[in-house]
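Write out this protein's structure.
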Amino acid sequence: MPEELERLVNASLFVIRAHMSDNGAIIASSDYSLVKIYGDGYFYCWPRDASYVAHALDLAGYGDLAVRVYRFLASLPNQGGALYHKYNSDGTLASSWHPWYMNGREILPIQEDETAMAVWAIATHFSIYRDFDNMVQLYKSFVRPAMKFMLSYTEDGLPRPSFDLWEERYGIHLHTVATVYGALFVGSELAEAMGDRGLAVDAKDAAKQIKEKVRSRMIFGNRLVRRLDENGNVDPVVDSSLYASFFFGLFNPRDPIVINTMNLVEERLRIGGGIVRYENDPYQKRKSYPNPWIITTLWLSEYKSMLGDKEAARAYLQWVASHGTASGMLPEQVDPESGEPVSVVPLVWSHAELIIALRTLLG
């Protein structure tokens, strides 16, 4: 491992632990600067971020700390197994901008990928550590109800609409679909190990149907689309979160559909060596181009590693390393021209994704 990456990994582990409460809560960032602008910060626990962080801890060999995060996620208030938008670090429900009513009808104000991510991370942890003692209670209290929710929250073989991981749009999102697929597939193996054969079979059948429906409904030309809107219309905007199509096992990274999709992501979203979230992303935009993000750039590194292109994977990792602070803190995003940090520093998810990307590179 190059010296600068080894140093950054150590800094990342420190950042993760420093943002983790004894009860297992992981806040997204301790940076206070946004409070002066928006009146609030990132001092909350998003189940998605926490799940990525716990998975990174698992990969780094800190399974005991990851279990602490999983126990916190399992203790959170939920809606029939579905986790809400975000939580305070004491486990109480936090503020949200997702509505309960939209277009004159009641909706469930969730990002379903957050529930799926938690199940996927817990089930993946079990596949690594096989720690039955920790898993029995987690499975009974959270994983099983969450899997049953995902099985029920479907329509025509796909997850029903919810909000996307960027917290901006409502619909059926490829990232959400892929995480639900991964959660049901890996969760079915956990269910089997727990002796819950009926749920295991149902989950695997549902995962198979999801894959079939994605092929029939979420392909535009020769590549995947990021979303179907409420009317079933295709959203053709190229989005970096399409990486989920291979990361969570929905498709093989060498599938022509994935290759076409990720080639387009790299072609249209690469700016200054990093990857922006999606085409014409306006969030925190300060220049004529959108800001590259750390996590999205690392997703490209993971993709290159899975293809066996180690040189390209390292190049993206080196770009990330070169855009950290002198103390090794990674921001959420960077200025496309100056490379200076934009938004919060550090973002814990950025540090977790670095560990995941490096582990993917090293195999």
